[in-house]
């Protein structure tokens, strides 16, 4: 595989790492977390979590899956390069 593939995965890994860190920090914890600073803790439905919190969960899972795929892709690329 070409070297640009590895560089693309590394850039994507850095971007998703930063995004994942920010998304995790925005989640509401027991003490309210950083999400309450931006208005996430103001509205809550009777079901327990607001629509914004559910969307935040979805985005966090999506970015986490992309992050994991980048790690696996880099590992496979490195394995192919060492065997070649």
TrEMBL record:
Alphabetical GO biological process terms: intracellular protein transmembrane transport; protein secretion; protein transport by the Sec complex
Sorted UniProt keywords: Cell membrane, Membrane, Protein transport, Translocation, Transmembrane, Transmembrane helix, Transport
Gene Ontology MF terms in the entry: protein-transporting ATPase activity
Transmembrane region(s): 6-26, 58-78
Function: Involved in protein export. Participates in an early event of protein translocation.
Family: Belongs to the SecG family.
Protein name: Protein-export membrane protein SecG
Organism: Micromonospora globbae
Lineage of producing organism: Bacteria, Bacillati, Actinomycetota, Actinomycetes, Micromonosporales
């Amino acid at each position: 595989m070409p070297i640009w593939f590895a560089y693309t995965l590394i850039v994507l890994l850095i971007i998703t790492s930063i995004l994942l860190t920010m998304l995790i920090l925005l989640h509401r914890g027991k003490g309210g977390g950083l999400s309450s600073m931006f208005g996430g803790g103001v509205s809550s439905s009777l079901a327990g979590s607001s629509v914004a919190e559910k969307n935040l969960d979805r985005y966090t899972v999506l970015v986490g899956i992309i992050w994991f795929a980048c790690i696996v892709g880099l590992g496979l690329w490195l394995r192919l390069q060492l065997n070649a």
